[in-house]
Write a structure and sequence with these properties.
The complex is a heterotrimer. By secondary structure, chain B is an all-alpha fold. Chain B has helices at residues 2-35, 39-43, 57-65, 68-99, 105-116, 120-134, 140-148, 151-163, 166-174, 179-207, 211-215, 225-236, 240-260, 262-274. Chain B has 14 helices and no strands. Chain C has twelve helices and two strands; from the N terminus they run αββααααααααααα. In chain C, a hairpin with a 7-residue loop joins strand 1 (50-51) and strand 2. Classes of the chains: A alpha+beta, B mainly alpha, C mainly alpha. At the B-C interface, helix 1, helix 4, helix 5, helix 6 and helix 7 of B face helix 1, helix 4, helix 5, helix 7 and helix 9 of C.
Chain lengths: 360, 275, 303
């Protein structure tokens, strides 16, 4: 019912290509997150699926049906907008009811459906209020209820949490995950926030410049980035990526063929205060501490290599080990199974390292 | 010293406030007082600031001196006609300017902007000549149609329609609302504050309109109340109490409306002033 | 990506109806504006080259109307009157409105009351106001103004009968009518000046007058500029007060362009001659508008 398939979809405004022959299958019942920097085309994809924007080429299938020429309202989907897009002159009830009225659902049935969804999102007490008298979180819930009441197979969400404050955002993230589990419908969620993407998506589609850069689970996209872009977009702080020329002397051998870039996650580096990293199979670096950020459970150091290259290193905070001071000379060691190599097309050249015995 | 200075400034403020109140109240007070005096009281010296017996018949005299009902009816017809005309012409135009792209839109909209700069006093003569040639003199139409479209109103309403976020319209499309339904149940309700501001402004301007009903007519057939009341002055100049009674009859209804809708009217005028 | 999208014809189908629809909605209004505001401007110029008394046929006489105008001492006086009236009205209205707005700045019961009171003349027809003020300004002692002023040992003044005073009397009426609205508009502009500017000025030890001139006036300058233009245009439009109170007299002292166009056109039926005056009025308004926008570009502080 709720599978979405895009085949070679193109979109351009005049000469400007926004989407370049993009193909993508969004599984029925998945919580798929489209993530990428602003301008990457993620919202355009959403709007093309909704039928709000006309594509320049390609096909879109929803539930195996080509939706070419099908009205937005007839695509069996609902959308939640970034600014909620509530009808300001209508009460909460009228907002939710509007879509039902337009498809001529009888009054009794409408009331039953409204009771049901407002119960789920906890809006029962606010039904007769106008949106301007609701808080941001409540408006968000109205937008959700308005989408849910139509019982669509697909929910499209365009950065729905970005106008909320951090705490509420966290709470609604959890609620959305629960809602997804409960409804079993396909959720297609657009965001520029990689943390949001990682925490919610059963599947993450990372986009840049109108192309899909990687399509994976949160775990795999973090641990096995397919390319430099992916390694830098996902994760905070991003992966340290160095050019091979900057540190060839330190590298373990043998190197895979065609390597141009070397990357590792900030938390994979082990710190040894006696400058030289412990030996073994991996990458050893010498560095100087130039900054320290206390994150709570972790400490984020910024360090500088002898060639002035800056790196980020994250370690668990441990009261038994004193924190490193500015200017301290340290050694870094990164085990070779945590090193990721990219070629000069910025694509990963090594196969993902997977410990056979471990279960994710 | 400081305390003295402070109380002096408070006293100054009170005096200025009192003076301001007098400046704006006295003309109205004098109008009403004159309207209920006898001719003897009116011309007596020194003037009396009170009257012993209210002369209600002054109002009847004013009412009888001109065809009061006729002028009132004209004012009502022209005001209602202008409001209706504006709804018919301004609403669709400003909606289309706000929400459609079409060839020549820029050029057509520049006509709208241009007319915002043209005062009516600049074109009353050529329009009068047009009316003479078309035989439209002394018709209601001639006093309604030119005001049924208005550059400023189109501009402001277009602004309002443009400010409706696109996402709301898209949400409505996803809710299976057709274009007419979107206009009727989303756009128009959202424009109600602007529409009522414009309507109030038009109502008051049209009701008070004097220049065009005078300039574009040669008989009394469609002349409005302000034109009629002014004729009291020429025919009854020696009876200021009757003239003022006529003025009271014209002013009081609008003052009553002002008292009722004070906030909206002030908002409307300030808004029209700022834009 | 987050660009706005117009409500386009569904799925881009360019049917005849969807192509024609915007024009059907727009053209009736545009037609009115074109017929009653744009075309008359040109027609006016056309008329000004003709001689016509509304009967018989029009006669082309070239620039003769203009030549006659420029030779006429009356016309020079009319232009002078128009300009003097405009200058007095604009400067006094704006200065007094600023003073009134500053005085009423703090929102108290009494200041709101005065605000409402001073606004009231705006909703009343100018004809009634003119009739009331004619009565107040009656020249002999039964006129209220002269009576009150006699206590101060002043007058009696021939408010409307003294040719040196009459134009100013008309300005007084115009100010009384519009100062309240002008002040209201200034007040709302004052309200949008952020407090931190005043706090910063206090920290910089700015005097009251320095604060007023370099913060308050600067910040409301866009509004003031706008009000000046509006008042200039409404000064040119003045008609009601003249027609009711002075009929252009005494001795032509209050005869302005619009009134004189009206007189020449509607009482003497000199359509061409009146049109020539209207063309000159149009040029004056056009020049001032252009000058205004030029000055606006240069001088006004925009937030």
């Amino acid at each position: 019912m709720g599978e979405i398939r895009l085949e070679n979809v193109d979109k351009s405004y005049g000469d400007k290509e926004i989407i370049k022959s993009l193909s993508l299958t969004i599984e029925d019942g998945s919580f798929t997150v489209l993530v990428g920097p602003s301008g990457c085309g993620k919202s355009t994809i959403l709007r093309i699926i909704a039928g709000l924007e006309k594509k320049t080429g390609g096909n879109v299938f929803i539930g195996n049906k080509n939706v070419e020429g099908v009205e937005p309202g007839k695509r069996n989907l609902a959308m939640v907008f970034q600014n909620y897009a509530l009808y300001p002159t209508m009460t909460v009830r009228q907002n939710i009811e509007f879509g039902l009225k337009n498809i001529k659902i009888p009054k009794q049935e409408r009331d039953r459906l409204i009771d049901e969804v407002t119960g789920i999102v906890g809006l029962t007490a606010h039904l007769e209020k106008k949106p301007q008298f609701l808080s941001g979180g409540e408006r968000q819930r109205v937008a959700l209820a308005r989408a849910m009441v139509k019982k669509p197979a697909v929910f499209l969400m365009d950065e729905p949490l970005s106008n909320l404050d951090a705490k509420l955002r966290q709470q609604l993230r959890l609620e959305l995950i629960e809602l997804h589990n409960r409804l079993g419908a396909t959720f297609l969620y657009v965001t520029h926030d990689q943390v949001e993407a990682m925490s919610m998506g059963t599947k993450i589609v990372l986009m840049d410049n109108g192309r899909i850069m990687q399509e994976d689970t949160a775990h795999d996209i973090y641990n096995y980035p397919k390319n430099v872009f992916s390694s830098k977009f996902i994760g905070s702080p991003p992966m340290n990526v160095l050019e091979l020329g900057e540190l060839s002397e330190y590298l373990p051998t043998p190197l895979p063929a065609g390597v141009k870039f070397v990357g590792f996650r900030p938390e994979k580096a082990k710190i040894a205060e006696n400058r030289r990293g412990s030996g073994g199979d991996g990458l050893s670096l010498e560095a100087t501490v130039t900054g320290r950020e206390m994150l709570g459970s972790e400490i984020l150091y910024s360090v500088e290599l002898t060639n002035k290259r800056k790196l980020a290193v994250k370690v668990m905070d441990d009261t038994e080990i004193s924190q490193l001071e500015y200017g301290t000379q340290i050694g870094l060691f990164i085990s070779s199974r945590h090193i990721i190599f990219f070629n000069d097309a910025e694509e990963r050249v090594t196969a993902p390292y997977r410990a056979e015995s471990k279960v994710i | 010293m400081k305390i003295l200075g402070k109380s002096a400034s408070i006293l100054g403020k009170i005096l200025i406030s009192a003076l301001l109140i007098l400046i704006f109240v006295v003309p109205f007070y004098w109008m009403i007082l004159t309207a209920v005096k006898t001719l003897g009281e009116v011309v007596q010296f020194p003037p009396k600031f009170w009257t012993d017996a209210i002369q209600w018949h002054n109002f009847k005299d004013a009412f009888d001196a001109i065809d009061f009902l006729h002028y009132t009816k004209n004012s009502l017809v022209i005001t209602a006609g202008t409001l209706l005309g504006q709804a018919l012409f301004i609403l669709p135009a400003s909606y289309a300017f706000a929400r459609y792209d079409f060839k020549g839109k820029k050029l057509l909209f520049s006509i709208v902007l241009l007319t915002m700069m043209i005062p009516g006093q600049l074109i009353f003569l050529p329009v009068f000549v047009m009316y003479v040639k078309l035989g439209l003199l002394n018709s209601y139409i001639s006093l309604i149609i030119p005001f049924a479209a208005n550059g400023l109103a189109i501009f402001m309403l277009r602004q309002t329609f443009m400010q409706v976020p696109d996402s709301i319209l898209e949400a409505a499309r996803l809710d299976n609302a057709g274009e007419f339904k979107i206009i009727y149940s989303i756009m128009l309700p959202m424009a109600v504050p602007t529409i009522s501001t414009l309507a109030l402004f038009t109502f008051i301007t049209s009701w008070n309109s004097y220049f065009f009903p005078l300039a574009w007519t040669t008989t009394d057939a469609v002349r409005t109340l302000p034109v009629g009341i002014q004729q009291l002055q020429s025919s009854l100049g020696l009876n200021p109490q009757v003239v003022m009674a006529g003025v009271v009859l014209m002013v009081v209804p609008i003052l009553v409306i002002f008292v009722i809708a004070r906030k909206q009217i002030i908002k409307a005028f300030t808004y029209m002033g700022i834009k | 990506m987050e660009r706005s999208v117009r409500l386009k014809p569904r799925n881009g189908e360019r049917t005849g109806w969807s192509m024609a629809r915007p024009y059907i909605l727009v053209l009736p209004a545009i037609a009115i504006l074109a017929v009653f505001y744009i075309y008359p401007i040109f027609y006016n110029v056309y008329l000004s080259f003709h001689s016509w008394n509304m009967r018989g046929s029009m006669k082309f006489i070239g620039l003769q109307n203009y030549l006659e105008l420029f030779k006429s001492a009356d016309f020079r006086q009319i232009i002078m009157n128009t300009l003097v009236y405009m200058l007095m009205n604009v400067s006094l209205t704006v200065v007094l409105a600023i003073a009134l707005a500053m005085f009423l700045r703090k929102s108290t019961l009494i200041s709101r009351f005065i605000q409402t009171l001073s606004f009231t003349p705006n909703i009343i027809s100018l004809v009634s106001i003119s009739m009331i003020w004619s009565w107040l300004m009656t020249a002999d002692e039964s006129g209220l103004f002269n009576y009150v002023l006699s206590f101060l040992g002043l007058g009696p003044f021939g408010w409307l009968s003294d040719k040196h005073l009459a134009l100013f009397s008309l300005v007084l009426v115009a100010i009384w009518k519009s100062v309240g609205l002008n002040a209201l508009i200034i007040t709302s502009s004052l309200g949008s000046i952020p407090d931190y500017l005043y706090e910063a000025a206090r920290l910089d030890n700015a005097s009251k007058s320095a604060t007023f001139f370099s913060i308050t006036l600067k910040m409301i300058s866009p509004t003031l500029f706008f009000l000046i233009l509006m008042n200039i245009i409404s000064s040119f439009e003045v008609f009601e007060t003249i027609n009711v109170m002075t009929q252009g007299g005494p001795d032509n002292a209050t005869n302005t362009l619009v009134f004189s166009i009206y007189k020449q056109g509607f009482e003497y039926y000199r359509i061409g001659y009146a049109s020539a005056m209207a063309v000159i009025l149009m040029i004056m308004i056009g020049l001032i508008t252009v000058f205004y926008f030029k000055a606006l570009e240069k001088n006004v502080h925009y937030r």
